[in-house]
Amino acid sequence: MINVVRLRIASAFIVTLALLGMASVCLAHRAPGCLTTIEWNELSGQTEIVHRLHTHDAELGVGAALDLPGLSVGDIEGRAHIALYVEENFQIRAGENELKLELIGAELSGNYILVYQELPGRLPQNILIRDDILRDAFPAQLNQVNIEDGDSVHSLIFTKKDGWLDYNFRSIPAP
């Protein structure tokens, strides 16, 4: 009799845990965010910049910002609008001089759209970065910029009203 009671209690406990686990999955929500990587490509002699945005966020956010409610990453025009929006909302400066980043293009990768930019040569040792991508559309937007610096990666995080954030390279490459 005691074993039957223990078995029922254990079964009820397991069912309760399973239901709680399912509830937490149902309540989970992906926060809007953009990941940008900046790295030097020695073979091409270019600084490469890649922005990764979730397709759903890009369609809704850029669509709202540009008043294009039907914007879709599924067609080339939609990807072009998103790439141009990213170009307008991401800048790098050296002191007071804005660096001219070249927009290369955009492509889909799973649930993400990747937007590519390049800068001829290396970045200067001291830079300022402004990342406003989708921050006009989503108040909780969090943008992370990962900067490759020698053998390590350093991150800048942009939230709410952040403006220009500075970065000083630690490893100075030989010319």
Explain briefly what this protein structure is.
The protein has 175 residues and is an alpha+beta fold. The protein has helices spanning 2-27, 55-65, 76-89; strands at 33-41, 46-54, 90-94, 97-98, 102-109, 112-120, 126-131, 142-149, 152-159, 165-168. A hairpin with a 2-residue loop joins strand 5 and strand 6 (112-120).
Give an overview in words:
This protein has 175 residues and is of the alpha+beta class. The chain folds into two domains: 1-30; 31-168, no CATH class. Helices cover 29% and strands 39% of the residues. The chain has helices at residues 2-27, 55-65, 76-89; strands at 33-41, 46-54, 90-94, 97-98, 102-109, 112-120, 126-131, 142-149, 152-159, 165-168. The strands form two sheets. Strands 5-6-2-1-8-9 form a six-stranded mixed beta sheet. It has a four-stranded antiparallel beta sheet with strand order 4-3-7-10. Strand 1 (33-41) and strand 2 form a beta hairpin. The longest helix is centred in the N-terminal third of the chain and has 26 residues, at 2-27. Mean pLDDT is 86; it is low at 4-13 and 15-27.
Summary keywords:
single chain; 175 residues; alpha+beta
Per DSSP, the total helix count is 3
What is the helix fraction of residues, given as a range?
Answer: 25-40%
Shape annotation: globular
Order of strands, widest sheet: 5-6-2-1-8-9
Biggest sheet details: 6 strands, mixed
From the N-terminal CA to the C-terminal CA, the straight-line distance is 82 Å
Unreliable segments (pLDDT under 50, ≥5 consecutive)? 4-13, 15-27
Q: How many strands?
A: 10
Count of folded domains:
2
Which structural class fits the helix and strand makeup? alpha+beta
| Quaternary class | single chain
- Compute the gyration radius: what is it? 22 Å
Relative strand content: 35-45%
SSE string: HEEHHEEEEEEEE
- How much is the average pLDDT? 86
